[in-house]
Amino acid sequence: MALSPEELSRRRRGRNWALILVLAAFAGLFFAISIVKLAQHPDLFTTSLDGPQQH
Amino acid sequence: MSLALDTTAATGGDASPPVFVATTAQETDIRDWIALLKPRVMSLVVFTGAIGMLVAPGGINPILGITAVLCIAVGAGACGAINMWFDRDIDALMRRTRNRPIPAGRMPPRAALGFGITLATASVLLMYVAINAVAASVLALSIVFYVFVYTMWLKRRTPQNIVIGGAAGAFPAVIGWAAVTGSVSLVPLVLFAIVFFWTPPHFWSLALYANEDYTRAGVPMLPVVAGARETRRHIMLYTVVLAAVSLVPWAIGFSGPVYGVTVLALDMGFLISAWRVLRDRQDPTGVSLTNDAPARAAFRFSLAYLFLLFAALAVDRLVA
Question: What is the pTM of this model?
Fold first, then answer.
């Protein structure tokens, strides 16, 4: 089952596009998760920037 | 594409034949990587996991919910890839599986193993970071169970492989529940039990008419070891147990009339299917004279049964 150079190139291109899409989706997902986590725990964000909250 | 004879491929004993494998992953098509994930199995796992999440008390942010379902899907896909790596010798012998990427020589075994391990690790880590430790632990447990207990240990050693191995497929509902609540309680364990008792009649119905494949591969499925007649009795027995277990969510008041009525109808249908399998016309050795038509029908019905049961559970909770 020998593959022609064109077929080999087509498969490589398809794999590269799939990888790009997966990486982009992964980056987007991590960004979205970070936003949600920060929204759920705003104290974490405040504490890290302003130091411990004073009562 | 260059091919090489992989003499190390045999994992099931000396009788296993050598397998031709691709020497490089460079030629592998993207569709083969997707096939490694067993998308059809994944769809069922994703469905039960999502329902486990939907019916759990409390709520979850939609992005986190989607992330949890993604982790369940990727974890299940990882199991599929590792399973195909380990079973490549017997896959080459069975008509149903011989066109899979590894036995067909379109992918090197090590690439599939690396792919599976990477996905398994990533899914558990992401579940831990984004969701919670309990959901990540149950996901890790389900992967370990499927790979080591079912694939590597039980599948080739005992006709009860499907019974105990079925636990692996029953975990997703528990994972979905744990993703929302951060704990595991009675209800997710009942959902686990439903999938657990559903698995044997589902797979034994398939095994009844895919008997030749399993015999050729030396997989000790119940029809191969105990015969078709005994398998039919087991299908009936497990369907009766399943029917009883499926009523528990209704009996303990977790679900209402939508689930109750639906599950009663589904149980009736499954019991009739199992009864037809049991009463199938057969020769004195138990071989079907109807080309296993009742078993084929029972297999199809079992798929619809699980989808509809879980859908009814979700609708019931949403309506209530």
Answer: 0.84
